[in-house]
Design goal:
Strand order of the largest sheet: 1-3-2
Largest sheet: 3 strands, antiparallel
Shape: flat
Mean pLDDT: 80
Low-confidence stretches: 190-206
Radius of gyration: 53 Å
Number of helices: 14
Structural class: mainly alpha
Order of helices and strands: HHEHHEEHHHEEHHHHHHEEHE
Number of strands: 8
Helix content: 55-70%
Length: about 525
C-alpha cells in the first residue's frame, strides 16, 4: 500500500516537474517569438523609412529631370519661334522690295506712256506739217512748171530715185571697205592659228615609237632578272619602255624625239646583238647616241645646203638637224621648214624682194621646236632667242618670233613667213587626220549649211575646203544669197576647227521651161 502511495506520489511529482518544465519551455518560446515580432516591426519600420527616403529622392530627381526637359523644350520652342519670325521678316522684306520694284516699274511705264503720247502728238504734228509742205510743193510745182499732177509726180520720183541710187552706191562702197578690212583681219587670224589647231588629236602619234621584235621571248630578256635590264635602259636613255601584251612589239615613249630615236636605235642594236645586260645597254647607247648625232649634223648641213645658206652658225646647223626627228601633227618639221623656205623665196621673188633673207627666215622659223622640250615658252620665241644668241640679223630674228603673232609683225618678211607657214601646213595631205575625224568634219559642214532656211542641198568638196550650197530660187534672192554665204562662213569659223580655209559658194539657179507641141 505504501509502495502504491509512493508510486502515486512519484507520479504526481513527475507530472509537476514535467508541467513546470513544459511551462518554462513555453514561456521561453513565447518570449523569443515576441522578440522576433518586435525585431520584425523594427525592420519593417526601417524599410518603410528607407523606402520613403528613396521615393523622396526619386521624386526630386524626376522633378529635376522634368524641369530640365521643360527648359529644353522651352528653349527649342523659343528658337523655332525666333526662326519663324525671322523668316516672316525676310518674306515681308522681299514683299516690300517687290512692291517697291513694281512701283518703280509702274512709274517707269507711266513715264514711257507719257513720252509715247508726247511723241505721238509730235509725230502727228510733223505728219500734218509734211502733208502741208507736200501740198504746197505740189501746188508750187504745178504753178511754176505748168505741169500736171501726174507729170510732177513722175519728176519728183525720178529725182528721189537718183538720190537713193547715189546713197546706195555710197553705202555699198562703205560696206565693201568694211568687208575688206574684216577679211584681212580674218585672214591674219587664220594664218596665225592654222598650225596650232587639233594639237591634242595627234599627241599619241608624236610621242611614241613602236619597235618590232623577232619573238615575244625577247621581252623577258629585255626586262631582265627582277627588272634590272629595263630599269637600266630607262635610266640610261631617259625614255619609258612599255612592254605589254601586243605581240612582237614594244613601245618607246618620250616627248623628246631625239632621245626617243636614240633609244630606238639602241634597242634595235641590242635585239640584233642578242646580248642584253646593263653594261651592254650602256655601250650600245653610246654608239647609238654617236650615230644619231652624226645623222642630225648631216641633216642640218643638207638642209642648209639645199636652201643655199652657207654661213649658219654650227650650233644652229646642229639644232636645225634635230628637226629631222620632230613632227607636228604628223608633219615632219624639217621638211616643213625646207618647204616654207622655198615658198618664202618664191613669194619674195614675185614681190620683187631679195630671196636670201626670205629663204633664211623660212628655214629657221620653226627651229625652236627642236628644243621646246627643254626650254619653257612658245617655240617661236625660243627659236628667236636661239638665233639672236648666235648672231642672226634682227630682221630674221623678228620674222621667226612673229610667225605665230607672239609679237606684232611689222615687215613684209614677217608676213611672208606667216603666209608660207600657213600654206605649207594647210596643203592637202600635209597633216594627218583620221578618217573618222575627216568624215565628221564634212558632215558638220553640211549640217551647218542645211540648217539655214531656203537651202535645198549641200555638197562638201575638195576635202572640205569648199562648200557648194544649192538654194531654192523662189525663197532666196540674189542679194539674200550673198548674205547667206557670209552667214554660213561666219558660223563655220565660230563653231569648227579646220586647217586652212573653207570657201562657201551659194548657187541660185532659176529655169524657165516652155514646151512646143
Amino acid at each position: 500500500m505504501s509502495s502504491i502511495l509512493i508510486g502515486i506520489v512519484c507520479l504526481v511529482v513527475g507530472a509537476l516537474v514535467a508541467y513546470l518544465a513544459v511551462s518554462k519551455s513555453n514561456n521561453s518560446k513565447v518570449s523569443e517569438a515576441n522578440q522576433a515580432i518586435e525585431d520584425a516591426h523594427g525592420e519593417a519600420s526601417r524599410i518603410r523609412e528607407n523606402a520613403k527616403r528613396d521615393a523622396e529622392s526619386a521624386k526630386k530627381a524626376a522633378m529635376v529631370e522634368a524641369r530640365e526637359e521643360i527648359l529644353q523644350l522651352k528653349q527649342k520652342s523659343e528658337q523655332d519661334d525666333k526662326k519663324r519670325k525671322q523668316e516672316l521678316q525676310n518674306m515681308e522684306n522681299r514683299i516690300m522690295q517687290r512692291e517697291e520694284s513694281l512701283d518703280h516699274r509702274n512709274d517707269a511705264l507711266d513715264r514711257k506712256e507719257h513720252q509715247l503720247s508726247s511723241l505721238q502728238g509730235q509725230l502727228d504734228r510733223r505728219k500734218n506739217e509734211v502733208d502741208s509742205l507736200y501740198k504746197k510743193q505740189t501746188t508750187e510745182l504745178e504753178r511754176i512748171a505748168d505741169l500736171t499732177r501726174e507729170d510732177a509726180h513722175k519728176e519728183l520720183l525720178d529725182r528721189v530715185r537718183g538720190d537713193v541710187v547715189r546713197e546706195e552706191a555710197q553705202i555699198l562702197r562703205e560696206s565693201e571697205q568694211r568687208t575688206r578690212t574684216q577679211a584681212d583681219k580674218t585672214a591674219r587670224e587664220i594664218i596665225s592659228t592654222a598650225i596650232q589647231r587639233c594639237a591634242s588629236d595627234q599627241a599619241n602619234e608624236i610621242t611614241v615609237t613602236s619597235v618590232h621584235m623577232p619573238s615575244d621571248d625577247l621581252k623577258g630578256r629585255i626586262i631582265g632578272r627582277e627588272g634590272r635590264n629595263i630599269r637600266t635602259f630607262e635610266q640610261v636613255t631617259g625614255v619609258s619602255l612599255v612592254i605589254d601584251d601586243t605581240p612582237e612589239t614594244v613601245v618607246l615613249s618620250s616627248f623628246d624625239p631625239v632621245r626617243r630615236e636614240i633609244a630606238r636605235v639602241t634597242l634595235e642594236n641590242l635585239i640584233a646583238d642578242g646580248r642584253i645586260h646593263p653594261a651592254r645597254i650602256e655601250e650600245m647607247y653610246k654608239k647609238a647616241e654617236s650615230l644619231v648625232n652624226e645623222r642630225i649634223q648631216e641633216a642640218g648641213e643638207q638642209a642648209a645646203f639645199d636652201a643655199g645658206i652657207h654661213d649658219l652658225h654650227p650650233e644652229i646647223v646642229k639644232t636645225l638637224g634635230r628637226l629631222r626627228y620632230r613632227t607636228s601633227f604628223g608633219q615632219n618639221v624639217l621638211q616643213h621648214s625646207e618647204q616654207v623656205s622655198n615658198l618664202c623665196a618664191i613669194m619674195a621673188s614675185e614681190l620683187g624682194l631679195p630671196e636670201a633673207p626670205a629663204k633664211r627666215a623660212g628655214l629657221l622659223h620653226d627651229i625652236g621646236k627642236a628644243i621646246d622640250h627643254d626650254v619653257e615658252g612658245p617655240h617661236a620665241v625660243i627659236g628667236a632667242d636661239l638665233c639672236r644668241r648666235y648672231g642672226e640679223k634682227p630682221q630674221i630674228v623678228h620674222a621667226i618670233e612673229a610667225h605665230h603673232a607672239d609679237i606684232e609683225p611689222n615687215t613684209v618678211l614677217d608676213v611672208l613667213v606667216q603666209a608660207a607657214d600657213a600654206i605649207s601646213a594647210a596643203r592637202p595631205g600635209a597633216r594627218r587626220e583620221s578618217a573618222e575625224a575627216y568624215i565628221k568634219r564634212l558632215e558638220k559642214l553640211e549640217e551647218i549649211s542645211n540648217a539655214h532656211e531656203g537651202v535645198e542641198r549641200t555638197y562638201a568638196m575638195q576635202a572640205g575646203r569648199e562648200l557648194h550650197v544649192m538654194v531654192q530660187p523662189e525663197k532666196i534672192s540674189d542679194a539674200e544669197a550673198t548674205v547667206l554665204a557670209h552667214d554660213i562662213a561666219q558660223q563655220i569659223e565660230n563653231e569648227m576647227q579646220y586647217p586652212g580655209q573653207v570657201r562657201v559658194v551659194v548657187i541660185r539657179e532659176s529655169r524657165a521651161v516652155g514646151i512646143a507641141k
